[in-house]
Amino acid sequence: MCLLEEVLHWDDCSVSARSRTHRDVDNPLRSEGYISTLSAIEYAAQAMAVHGALVGAVSERPLAGYLVSVRKVTCLSPRLDDLEGDLFVEARQLAGDAERVMYSFSLRIGDTEALSGTATVMLDAGALT
Hints:
Elements: E1 6-10, E2 14-19, H1 41-55, E3 65-75, E4 87-96, E5 100-109, E6 112-123
Antiparallel strand pairs: 1-2, 2-4, 3-6, 4-5, 5-6
């Protein structure tokens, strides 16, 4: 599942991406006819993965990344699919090494912030050797 459509900007510490897939009736995150804003954590996780690939944080593709912690989550809208406009995802790397990485993230649609928080991802260290 690829939800992000475009990387707008990236550097060593951050990535910004855009998507319109939150409005797609076939979006795989849709459940019972709508997309919960908490599902947007998947958009943030995909932005983190793209950032890792762009900055060369891993020399080889890990077999899997495991979202092990999501903290300080602020959800300001109950659902994504009824918000007009493009979805913008921003992720900023706070810390990391070859085994784990921590990011802050925020998602907004237009001027409306929908979700923010921090996430820790454990990389499949066995795939890095």
